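In this supplementary section we document a worked example of the pipeline. Step one takes a protein sequence of length 111 as its only input; no multiple sequence alignment statistics are reported here. Step two produces a three-dimensional model, which step three serialises into structure tokens for compact storage. The input and output of this example are shown verbatim.
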Amino acid sequence: MHAVLINDIRLASAASPFESSGMKEVTAGPIATGPFAAAIARIGGPQAVPVFAAFLQAAPPQGLGMACAVLDRFTYAMVEVAGGGRTVTITAERRRGATGVPRAAGAFRAR
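The serialised model returned by step three reads:
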């Protein structure tokens, strides 16, 4: 199942406190698979896709608080490193010529 997901790494996500560890998790892909949204629709019907996406992006405790949850498009993540390797920018992109704009980007600094 293909998706782009950007989230804070939390030590606990099902119970308070919902503190971030200060680290991010970025998932893009895998290639040669169907969109995650299609798998969700097969199991729960098409109405389940926006509900699941809302759960992923809703702030805790109602959801997981993901900064990005692209479930329905073939995308890739462009990774750029700057500042002598101290800053990494990850941008969710669509293939060249595709309509729409990237849904998420994040710049992360090394500590």
